[in-house]
Amino acid sequence: MAKRKRPGRPFVEKITDAQRTTLQAIRDFITQHEFPPTMQELGQKLKISGASAHQLVRQLERKGYVSRIPKQARSLKVLREIEQQPASLVSVELLGMVAAGQELWADENRLGEVMVESSLIGRGKHYALRVKGQSMINAGIREGDIVIVRQQPVAESGEIVVASTSKGTTVKRLFMQGDQIELRPENKLFKPILVSEESDLRILGKVIGIRHSAVKEG
User: Fold this and answer.
1) For the chain, which end, N or C, has fewer CB atoms within 10 Å of the first or last residue's CB respectively?
2) Exposed/middle/buried for 44, CB within 10 Å: 0-12, 13-18, 19+?
3) Is the domain covering 89-211 a CATH 2.10.109.10 domain?
4) CA–CA separation, 40 vs 20, rounded Å?
5) Confidence check: pLDDT of 9 > 70
6) Catalytic residue numbers, as ranges
């Protein structure tokens, strides 16, 4: 006689560490670029071949974590979040508050530490900043969220960066076209910051991940 299933949460097939890392890489790529990666780009991010990345995506697709349209580039969609499982974590220094929407200087004093999945952290120095303001909400960055940043002095057009200008430090999307440089918000209620020679622009790092705050700040 077959046993009756107990009521409760629906069964969710567990994923491997490699699949978890792949899913996180897809989510982070979409956050940074506003479109999903190709298999080649995903492979480069994971430091594996495009064919290996394709195999991992197919495994995630079978388990219901992502969907895609066969033979169509940039058709990846994340369908659900990763089930909470023990993960390898590393501590990242929390340097201070940063304004997203208001030009407030980021406090360079050490405020503490946050724990981040080791799969997200690569080479180089990383730090975390807590966001204040609503100018990046359409990129999934809200008031009180913590952004994980890879410290680097340069970035490519279209990437989300932590930047310092003569008016302060901010989180914005960097756009460069010819001699024109803009720090653009992801909220139509805010205006882009036009960078000039007097702006004293410095790139302080590239946002590589987001940790959403569970509590809204008043």
Assistant:
1) N
2) middle
3) yes
4) 18
5) no
6) 135, 172
